[in-house]
Amino acid sequence: MRELIDKLYKNHNLEKEEFIYLIENFDKDTSEYLFSLAQTTSQEHFQKEVYIRGLIEFTNYCKNDCYYCGIRRGNKNVSRYRLSKEEILSCCQNGYELGFRTFVLQGGEDPAFTDEIMIDIIKAMREGYPDCAITLSIGEKSYDQYQAYYEAGANRFLLRHETANEEHYKKLHPESLSLENRKECLRNLKEIGYQVGTGFMVGSPYQTPECLAEDLAFIKELSPQMVGIGPFIPHKETPFKDFPAGSMDLTLFLIGMLRLMLPNALIPATTALGTIDPKGREKGILSGSNVLMPNLSPIGVRKKYELYDNKICTGEEAAECNVCLRNRVASIGYNVVEKRGDFVEI
Ligand code: 5AD
Ligand code: FES
């Protein structure tokens, strides 16, 4: 096991069979060894700095029907909302004052946000916050649409591939979505010049170690600037309601592997990780993550953007998130910084 991890540390890649072997056989010792190398790698590139991204969940309408997702079209028990441009800008203002220098506009695939409206919002954010990065997380669009948002001032784009295995992709999504188109979108985004983030859920229904090995190989090949992974968590109003949540230990192990594969990548400790374990985000950082993505959405809508059950930071306590997060990061000897935290080539 250690030999394989040393090889990953040295070559930043492994054969598929070797990935599978690690995923199937890792234990506590192996994990600790991996995490120590992952932390060394993170600190080489980022010292002990943790970047924060302010997440603005601006619409929970979605035209898609992914089987895992709580805001899927088929869920009639969600109270749907859209934020206005003014509400979005006020989230930015609030975030800016709290030290955020990256804003992430995330939403379902909502046709009401036409290109014209999106471009107007992006331009207003670009003008109001010239020193901030604007990240979009709004799903699959055409090359020209991505290009237009880029020209309006967006810099980064998050689009998880969800799974790199064709068969598995079909088990997670209805026929209207295809892995081929997903990959095409990711290639287009890179070509246009976005810093691109992809990723997948750990422990999604029907996932096998082979699927995960394919995810890692796909990520290595795409070579994205950001990778977000988090455990699958069932949502009670979806077809996957009775499936178990993904494993935290496996999620942490994969974060460690990703850090060795992509030493300078931006890797968040996700909210889903913080949801399955109260210390999940801290453990993520100690496994190789260097980004946190707290919520800047108005408190009144946070419960409505539930992709999975029991999402943290959606209740009364949410007003304290900023302080809470800084304390959490400080408790493990790292510190939150007020920087854009762009990807830096090595
Ligand atoms: N559990 C965990 N993550 C989920 N996502 C969507 N639904 C769930 C769920 N039930 C993730 C997907 C998506 C991202 C925004 O949230 O990977 O890309
Ligand atoms: Fe939201 Fe801790 S980060 S309460």
Q: What can you tell me about this protein's structure?
A:
The protein is built from 14 helices and nine strands. The protein has helices spanning 2-11, 16-25, 28-46, 85-97, 115-128, 143-152, 166-172, 179-192, 209-222, 248-261, 271-276, 280-286, 299-302, 321-331; strands at residues 49-52, 54-59, 102-107, 133-137, 156-158, 195-202, 226-231, 291-292, 335-337. The strands form two sheets. It has a six-stranded parallel beta sheet. Strands 8-1-9 form a three-stranded parallel beta sheet, covered by helices on one side. The protein is globular, with a radius of gyration of 19 Å. The two termini are 28 Å apart. The structure holds 5'-deoxyadenosine (5AD) and FE2/S2 (inorganic) cluster (FES).
